[in-house]
Automatic annotation (TrEMBL):
InterPro entries: LysR_HTH_N, LysR_subst-bd, WH-like_DNA-bd_sf, WH_DNA-bd_sf. This is LysR substrate binding domain protein. Keywords: DNA-binding, Transcription, Transcription regulation. It comes from the Bacteria.
Length: 296
């Protein structure tokens, strides 16, 4: 049986929208419609009622849905079993992630996975958040590790690793280091050292700057957090970065002060819903288990 059609059925039952299901599953609306009509013809049953642009399961559809959901779960378990059985054969897993991944739990998950499944060939590349969002649309990228500020995108499967929040890094010999918390207004006259793409349309920090009517005095914008820390250590400027994205070991003259109002992000693994290769499912299930275990 074609599990793609079954997946379409389950998703449409959830969204009650042909257009939303098409977007989530990277299909055309006509393909979604064909999947449902094919199942209805094969099973000789009406699965959905369509009236006034409303799409709802029929009584028969409601009875069939749990069995379809169970079948898809079993199919996924089978794929994982196949992946484990094939672990002695070379398989490739492509993951792209943010440059600061080593500071987060995701790094340990990936390294532990490669240790447990040594015959899985990992291809990892780092990229900035806007580029990662584009990478996810490509067929040759399986999973990305990125930072998000809004609700989960329903088009993608999501595993939330952990949360993080912005802090202001200041030299300890600066008067700002005495503050218990700092606002954008309080650092508006300071030289600002930023990681590239810190201030983007998608970043809530950009909105805070707009509301504060602050035009930042950016004197450095790049990819090297170590260079920012060294400049701060020498008494130059301030920086606004995520609290877990750096390590102050060796930078004794740098202090992290909470930014107010607090701006939080979530660190997540994302994959397209149509990425169901056995090795991808193997990693996905492994990551979920590791995160659940870490919560205990």
């Amino acid at each position: 049986m074609d599990t793609k059609k079954l997946t379409t059925l389950v998703d449409l039952a959830e969204t009650q929208s042909y257009s939303e299901t098409a977007e989530r599953l990277f299909l055309s609306q006509s393909t979604v419609s064909k999947h449902i009509m094919t199942l209805e013809k094969e099973w000789d049953v009406k699965l959905f009622s369509r009236a006034h642009r409303q799409v709802q399961l029929t009584a028969a559809g409601k009875k069939i849905l749990p069995a379809v959901q169970q079948l898809l779960r079993q199919e996924k378990e089978l794929q994982t079993t196949v992946a484990i059985a094939n672990a002695n054969h070379a398989q490739t897993l492509v993951i792209h992630g943010i440059a600061s991944i080593a500071q987060y739990q995701a790094f340990n998950i990936i390294t532990k996975f490669t240790s447990q499944y040594p015959n899985v060939k990992l291809k990892f590349s780092e990229a900035e958040v806007p580029d990662l969002n584009e990478d996810l649309k490509r067929q040759d990228v399986d999973v990305i590790f990125t930072r998000i500020y809004e609700d989960n995108d329903p088009r993608y499967d999501t595993i939330v690793n952990e949360t993080d929040h912005y802090v202001v890094l200041v030299p300890k010999n600066s008067p700002l280091a005495q503050a218990k918390q700092l606002s954008i207004e309080m650092i508006k006259d300071q030289q600002l050292l930023l990681l590239r793409n810190t201030i983007t349309v998608a970043n809530p920090l950009n909105e805070v700057l707009k509301r504060s009517l602050v035009t930042p005095r950016i004197v450095y914008e790049g990819q090297r957090i170590d260079l920012i820390l060294e400049m701060l250590n020498q008494g130059m400027g301030v920086s606004v970065v995520m609290n877990k994205s750096f390590d102050l070991t060796g930078f004794d003259n740098v202090k992290a002060v909470p930014l107010v109002p607090e701006i939080c992000s979530r660190l997540v693994f994302l994959k397209r819903r149509d990425r169901t290769a056995p090795v991808v499912n193997l990693f996905w299930d492994f990551a979920k288990r590791e995160i659940e275990q870490a919560k205990k």
